[in-house]
């Protein structure tokens, strides 16, 4: 049969056959679950009963009217703020370690090391660091006479999200630094030398020459940071369980509780779809801002 087909048709057939398996897998494990999620968001379902009741936009109405849900979403914005600071810090260290600094390879390893550590191990380590009674951080504060600052870090509604945000910065800043460092090393040295010859200072060279050449990488890092902060789950789940009194609940932990603790899979699905839309909106704003800056 293949002998009767032309070379162009054989090539097209091979391409279709090679693409068929990944397309089927993508449809089964990505497209179908996403469509089923949207379908469930219009239903009232406890997760066990074979019967599902159509409620239309009732679940979405409940999501937007539920103050606890949006309070949890505001907690994600704290992580977003720390994530932006994390990117700025990663870029700063990348610029610093891209120079002829003595021992720069050792510093690179030290800063990247937290990223390769297991997330659960990091959570338990910082549970000891910020423990209100025997934690090393409070011990340090008391030893220098700052007893008034030695509070229950995971028990304070005002401090808990910032503590968790700091932990995410400590863990992921090294990854941002490595990505920025690779981008900086791809910038042609000729244009940097030309800027120096024209009398530009190190700061002017970084702002006017280097950064405009790595805007795509900055956009990528911001993309990953925004997705990660809006979908954060592991640290608040392990360290605080959403406490105290829901002060550290995130949108995703609230969604998981709605589904598996309160058996309201319809509303949980609506919350998931809402989160997807929120991520798309925030990413669109970020993309628009970075495009304008690069232009």
How is this structure best described in words?
It is a single chain. This protein is mainly alpha-helical and 295 residues long. It has one domain: Orthogonal Bundle (MetI-like fold). It has a two-stranded antiparallel sheet. β1 and β2 form a beta hairpin. α2 crosses α13 and α10 runs antiparallel to α13. The longest helix has 34 residues. The radius of gyration is 25 Å and the shape is flat. The model has no long low-confidence stretch (mean pLDDT 89).
- Identify the CATH homologous superfamily: MetI-like
How helical, in percent, are the residues?
A: over 70%
User: How many helices in DSSP terms?
Assistant: 13
SSE class: mainly alpha
**Main sheet summary:** 2 strands, antiparallel
- What is the beta-strand fraction? under 5%
Provide the CATH topology.
MetI-like fold
Name the strands of the widest sheet in spatial order.
Answer: 1-2
